[in-house]
Amino acid sequence: MDLNAPIAIRLRGISNSFGDQVVHKGVDLDVRNGEILGVVGGSGTGKSVLMRTIIGLQQPIEGEIEIFDEPMTGADAQTQLDLRRRWGVMFQGGALFSTLTVAENIQVPLREFYPELDTQLLDEIAAFKVIMAGLPANAGPKYPSELSGGMKKRAGLARALALDPQLLFLDEPTAGLDPIAAAAIDALIRNLSRTLGLTIFLITHDLDTLHAICDRVAVMADHKVIAVGTIPELLASDHPWIQEYFNGPRGRAATAAVDRNPHKGA
Question: How far from 251 is each of 83, 176, 205, 241, 247, CA to CA, in Å?
Answer without folding.
Answer: 37, 18, 11, 12, 5
